[in-house]
Amino acid sequence: MRMYRALALAAALGVLAAGCTTDPKLAAPKATFVGSEKCGGCHVAEFRTWKDSLHAKMIRTPREALLKDAGDNWAKDGKGNAGPTKGNIDGKAAAMADVVYVVGSRWKQRYLVKNPATGNLQFMDKQWNTVHRQWEPYGQKNDWETQCATCHATGYRITSYDPANPATQKVAMSEHNTGCESCHGPGSDHAANLGKRPMFNPAKATKEQSSLVCGYCHVRKENYNFKTAQNHPREDQPHPVLGESYKAGQDDWRTWYPDKMLIPGVLPGQPVSKNYPNTDLNNAFFLDDKAQKWGSHDARKHHEEYQEYLQSSHYKNNLLSCSDCHSPHAVPGKAAIEPMKTCAGCHGNAYDPNKIMPGLASTAQNLFVRSHTFNKNQDRPGGPTATNKAEPAHYYAK
Ligand code: HEC
Ligand code: HEC
Ligand code: HEC
Ligand code: HEC
Ligand code: HEC
Ligand code: HEC
């Protein structure tokens, strides 16, 4: 191990001497994305446990991941709600057989069919709520590739873009889902050199840097720098340079086109204590008297964990990063963390995570993800969460 590190450092210093980079911690500047399968060839335990995690299961083919409940109830659910029948953008009829990908599995599942106008994928008009086992209206009139994929894929990049005509934009990604390189940065140089060249390891970064990696996706924002193919503000944050992807551990996305971004709680001058009407951030945080008094604003919509976490004393006092309570994979010699059991190690019985972290952020009808503000006065009653939900059954036999 020690030997490898010494070599890695020497290699990094070599690069530094050549004037290509300014920080030896940063991997080779010219590295490209090689895909998780490649990393798995050497990092067997990480690959196996990542493959089993939700990060690897976000977007899959219907054969792999159509939920049994949804498939069985495709026409109508047990409560009489009709299932999906058409594409959201073109309004054309679509059937189960037209679904190219399914998105999600734990809280909800959404269905992608072709959008012939752009060649991209569009959503169908209903989503499946996995806990309440029902169809619900879903109305996003944007392509998957230009509204969602940055947070649901790895190595995403816009390759051509005309601000006067966003419909003609072209995008690319190195793989679907949150692959190894989403959190470790591109690894071609490291992989081709038997692991002897550096790779970003969040465990060796500051708590701030480590959480920033997760924050790229576990956040809610509104982007006016790039539009969707349907000419709406985007909800993700592609790299400002065409052809470039976000590089975890190297890029600070907070500094990208800040004048054209709304990221409450992250960018200065955009507090979480005020509302942003007519944007996707409308009612995104609790702003009532209680929240103003506590000075902590729980999320009302899902994927805002980072913005909630920045408000906590855990973050403000540099105590913990996201990965101190969450293992994206197991690593050799260190079992995966059980998040609910972490509190007792430091607080004894003082804080019950069920009370401190109620389900407040809506992800589907009457279904919530847990609060991450870590407020000791928390007394909001939580709604149903997906905690303790059984592994889902699939429609197609494996
Ligand atoms: C050919 C084998 C090989 C491949 C392929 C490979 N690695 Fe590694 N990796 C290693 C070895 C060996 C080490 C240990 C190096 C050390 O201790 O300095 C390592 C170390 C690491 C570390 C820890 C670095 C540190 O400083 O603590 C990370 C993170 C990592 N690899 C991620 C990846 C990712 C992500 C990929 C795919 C892009 C990948 N590796 C592909 C062999 C490989
Ligand atoms: C490229 C975007 C991206 C990055 C970076 C990312 N996540 Fe996620 N994360 C997601 C998405 C998308 C899901 C939902 C996956 C699903 O339900 O299929 C998710 C789900 C989760 C979950 C809930 C599922 C589970 O396995 O319990 C946790 C916890 C989580 N992420 C923690 C983290 C942490 C910690 C980091 C940083 C070390 C991180 N994520 C980085 C996109 C990302
Ligand atoms: C969601 C973010 C995320 C994803 C995806 C991810 N990792 Fe990691 N990885 C981390 C974090 C965080 C750590 C530091 C863990 C810790 O705190 O010990 C880490 C640590 C590592 C290490 C160093 C282990 C050690 O002993 O120090 C290796 C090697 C590694 N990851 C490889 C991989 C490989 C290979 C994949 C894909 C199969 C992968 N990672 C996917 C976040 C991620
Ligand atoms: C800024 C990043 C980001 C964007 C943009 C984004 N998502 Fe997500 N999404 C996440 C994260 C992170 C999670 C998991 C954590 C959570 O829900 O709090 C998630 C969860 C989901 C889930 C639930 C997964 C499950 O297992 O139940 C679905 C479905 C989903 N997203 C679909 C979409 C669609 C469709 C779009 C585009 C219209 C989109 N997302 C845009 C980050 C994002
Ligand atoms: C590594 C140790 C550690 C872990 C693990 C940990 N905490 Fe903490 N937590 C602390 C420390 C130290 C503080 C005090 C910070 C300060 O001085 O304000 C704190 C602060 C808090 C506070 C705010 C207290 C206040 O006075 O405002 C709450 C609530 C809390 N933690 C809940 C939790 C919950 C719930 C969990 C588990 C999900 C957890 N903590 C896990 C160390 C930890
Ligand atoms: C002090 C510990 C702690 C920290 C720090 C922490 N989490 Fe969590 N997180 C938890 C616990 C506990 C759960 C609930 C797990 C369960 O229900 O089994 C959870 C759940 C989640 C979920 C799933 C939502 C749900 O309702 O199950 C996501 C996504 C997530 N965390 C992301 C993050 C991200 C991103 C960060 C950093 C910005 C972070 N967490 C920091 C303890 C923590």
How is this structure best summarized?
It is built from 15 helices and 15 strands. By secondary structure, it is of the alpha+beta class.
Bound small molecules, deduplicated? heme C
Indicate the low-confidence ranges by residue numbers: 1-28
Average the pLDDT over all residues and give the rounded result: 92
Secondary structure class reads alpha+beta
Largest sheet: 6 strands, antiparallel
Any idea what the shape is? Answer: globular
> How much helix, percentage-wise, in residues?
10-25%
Topology, number of strands? 15
What pattern of helices and strands is seen along the backbone?
HHHEHHEEEEEHHEEEEHHHEEEHHHHHEE
- Strand portion, in percent? 5-15%
Distance between the termini: 39 Å
What's the number of structural domains? 2
Our Rg estimate from Cα atoms comes to 22 Å
How many helices? The count is: 15
Question: What's the arrangement of secondary structure elements?
Answer:
Layout lengths: L1 H16 L18 H5 L3 H8 L7 E2 L1 H4 L2 H5 L28 E3 L4 E8 L4 E4 L2 E4 L4 E4 L6 H4 L1 H4 E2 L2 E4 L9 E3 L2 E2 L3 H5 L3 H5 L14 H9 L6 E6 L5 E2 L26 E2 L26 H6 L10 H5 L3 H4 L25 H6 L5 H4 L2 E6 L2 E4 L28
Antiparallel strand pairs: 1-2, 2-3, 3-4, 3-5, 5-6, 7-10, 8-9, 11-12, 11-13, 14-15
This protein binds heme C (6 copies).
